[in-house]
Amino acid sequence: MNPKVSLVIGILCISFSPIFVKLAGVAPIGSAFYRVFVAWVCLLPYCIIKKKLRIDKRQLIIAVTAGVVFASDVAVWNISLLKISATVSTLLANLAPVWVGLLSFLLFKKRSGNLFWIGTLLAIIGMVVLVGYQHILHLELNAGILLAVLASLLYATYIMITKNIMASIDVFTFMFYSMLGASVFLFLINSSMGNTITVFSLKVWLCFIGMGLICQLTGWLTINYSLRYLESTKVAIALLSQTVFAGLLAAFLLNEKLAVNEIIGSVIVLAGIAVTFLKPRNQLVSSS
After folding, report:
1. Range 224-251 average pLDDT
2. Domain range spanning residue 117?
């Protein structure tokens, strides 16, 4: 599959996550656990039949670590949602592209280029317009804000870990062990918080299955596949469009109306993402 097409499919799939979470109406961290656990259970028989479980010690440590980082990102972000507004938390949690660009330069001396930073700035401006500038003006430094920023850093860390290992490991093998680590970690968090994770209605269980199959399994299989071939910085900025697609899905599936600022902000975000995927003029000349 074309990596860019794979990335688009993955983003569309994970955009269903807030829809399922809203429809389920249970503790956010409980939803996060079943999102990962259901995907892992569905992947288990395939990996056994296709003999995808073989992995060396180094790859196992990295995969499990990536899973714990991903689970931590989900847990921290969901906790921040309880302390500050969802719009502000979402905006701050989507600072991942900035962290990816900075970490790539600081750790690997990799320059992202002017087009990346122009596109990133444009996309962030679009995010601000989308959630409403008034929410930004009234920010106060509190635990919720710090947790949302931490979530964005964890998100960026997961993308970078995944990028560095995907070239040397099968994507199904990586997903199996990373989701196993994430499932165990989220189970321990739910247990420590006393969340009920067994007694639910049929509607809630169907939402969990939807999250596991669509958002986690299909979504992150295709995103991780794209990370084999695309730069992590570009994947990170492209993931910003999740907020846009989630808004559109909510409008169609939950009858939520889109405000003018949300429509304008969405267009700006998508334009910023498009800029990051443009090739510099000198690269176009050399390739021709």
Report:
1. 78
2. 3-287
